[in-house]
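Q: Got a minute? One more chain.
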Amino acid sequence: MTVSITDITFDAGDARALATFWANLLGWQVFYDDDPVVLVAPHYPTLGKTTMLFIPVPEGKTAKNRVHLDLTPTDMTRDEQVEQAIALGATVVGDHREEEDGGGWVTLADPEGNEFCIVRSDAERPAPTTKAWRLG
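A: Always. Here it is, folded:
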């Protein structure tokens, strides 16, 4: 049996504002109507594609995320993407960049405190090794 991930869902104090942050960061679009739930997707309709949903809730975030997103830039460097995220309203939680080989990542928080990481772009990474991932 297989399944696909349809939505990544965020609780939000201000669903439209948080959706707008993520849409701007990812280069996606915001979709909403009279429903308080806000959709962020690369395009609409998004049949078979993963989207992000932002659902308004009254309570604020109280603890560290148990799950977070790792973002890999596709048209800029990791450091440029970090600067863009900060300009959009993210804050740096932890800087794990390594000076020696340029590796590492930066952990940030979106405007409502949800953590995410930005890693190096594929163009910034060394050539892959032949080591394969083993499942199970």
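A: The longest helix spans residues 15-26.
Q: Perfect, thanks.
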